[in-house]
Amino acid sequence: MIEVKNLTKYYGEERILNRVSFKIEKEHKVALVGFNGVGKSTLLKILAGAIKPDKGDINYNKKVTIGYLPQETNKYDGYKVIDFLKEYVDKDDDEPFRRKIEIMFSGFILDSEIKNKKISQISSGQKTKVFLTAVLLKEPNLLLLDEPTNNLDLPALIWLENYLKEFNSAFIVVSHDKKFLSNVANKVYEINWVKKDLEISNGTYEDYLERKNKELKRQQLDYDLQQEDINRLRKLAKDKQENAAKGAKYVAPDNDHMLQGYRRNKSSDSLRDSKVIFNRIKRMDKVDKPEHRKSFIIDIEEENIGDSRDVILKDLITGYEDFQIGPINLNIESGDRVCILGLNGTGKTTLLKTIIGDLKAISGQVEVGEGIRFGNLMQEYQNIPKKKTLSKFLIDRTGLEKKEVENYLDFFGFKEVQYNDEISILSPGSKARLILALFAIENVNTLILDEPTNNLDLEAGGALQKAVDKFKGTIIFVTHDRMFVEKSRFNKLFLLGNGDLSKVENFKDYVDEMDKKSKKLIRLIK
After folding, report:
1. Under a CB-based contact definition with an 8 Å cutoff, are residues 119 and 130 in contact?
2. Please, which residues bridge with residue 191 across strands?
């Protein structure tokens, strides 16, 4: 379908992609992975024809049709949803077309009435669903999907997952959702953060992780063994050089010319041997030292404050003039790990804002213990001063000295050259890491996490997972990330829907039910 040869791309003087080569065949379902900022979106834009490479060739099969979902979708804001769908898909507005739209909307949990709204009037999550609907309705044989899971609620994500598994289109997808990648991909393309080239792994995403871990361990072992051998040979060569030097200076007692000649001959032999050994080292096929990115560890320790740290909601009704949730009764005790599930637009963020005091309750009570120190990731993310440098932001917020702040930046995976960069140029994941560094300094004891994995790359998301597991304080978490929920030890799971907060007894059963519903809808399209 597509053959890419030696693709290279620069932004200014920085090389983003270096001699990238690969093929895409009709059976390929590719997870494109790599650290934030490594060039994944750039590669998809090049393949979609949105930007041009600086070097290299792309050969397209004449029969290939491409459906591209970019991260940025603002160019169609002036369109009504239905007009956009008709123009993008370029099909007659007949009964089969309308029926497919209805099925797609059901799968993505979109209200049919949204068709008559302007794209600028709908939420980011709804916008992602509308654009995915358009791309899938076009029925391309190659899908390029850049972060399609970021703004999807769980039923919509499962619908997309089942669609990609059931239909024959090849695809390249970028996502921070490990479970999604594990379920849909049969190949993994990784953009190497050092070489900027592409490493190809056949098999599932889990196969790739296992293979990569084994390869790194093997390469490290081979490198260590070779270095031991090189060091041994260098010591042997150096010893022979020293012996040669001593022999050359040797003066035999009693002018014994025979002994002196013998020692000097041995000296020549030792010098020749040392050269042979050094040449042997030079001729070795050197094992490359494995490239290790500094481990990204998030270490957030709660501060031990004696005052109450409970959150109690009593007959809470909250929201806005045209949207309300409640009444809600909920006790969150110190150390609880609470996960709130629900569709986009059901009021999860509204509830979080009410708990932390950003939104006044309409009625009822919100009792927050005096000892609570909130750390709200998404609030900080939205309000971060983009014109400040990384170090200035932390200095101003914490009062720490510059050197202390730089130690934290280093600990959270930032390079020294980035300390004086403006926050505005950071990738979304890097901004989130900066805020987590702030939380570590401030010793928060109650984490408010509203879809944090949307903006973290796979490595950073894994680090956040470990931080959540290790954190001894209270966590109030909103997420659609199944792997995060499965691996985190949440002791209270709730579902917010139709204004009510209900307990989820078993997360697996909850997911399985959505999976069954999505598969029924898939059968209606086939």
Report:
1. yes
2. 198
- Residue 10's domain comprises 2-205
Q: 114 in a domain, yes or no?
A: yes
CATH code where residue 125 lies: 3.40.50.300
Is residue 385, in this structure, part of any structural domain at all?
A: yes
Q: Find the helix or strand (DSSP H, E) in which 206 lies.
A: helix 205-249
The model's pTM = 0.77
Specify the DSSP element, H or E, that contains 382: helix 377-383
Query: Which of 62-71, 147-156, 272-281, 416-425 shows the lowest mean pLDDT across its residues?
Result: 272-281
Predicted pLDDT of residue 36: 76
Of 205, 237, 260, the residue at which a domain comes to its end is 205
Number of domains in the chain: 3
The reply to whether 272 falls in a domain is yes
User: What type of residue sits at position 490?
Assistant: F
| Token pair in block for residue 37 | 């900022």
Dig out the tokens for 42 from the structure.
Answer: 């750039």
Long-range contacts of 342-345 (CB under 8 A, 24+ apart): 342/153, 342/495, 342/496, 342/497, 343/109, 343/153, 343/155, 343/497, 344/109, 344/123, 344/125, 344/126, 344/151, 344/152, 344/153, 344/156, 345/123, 345/125, 345/126
Query: CB of 170 within 8 A of CB of 28?
Result: yes
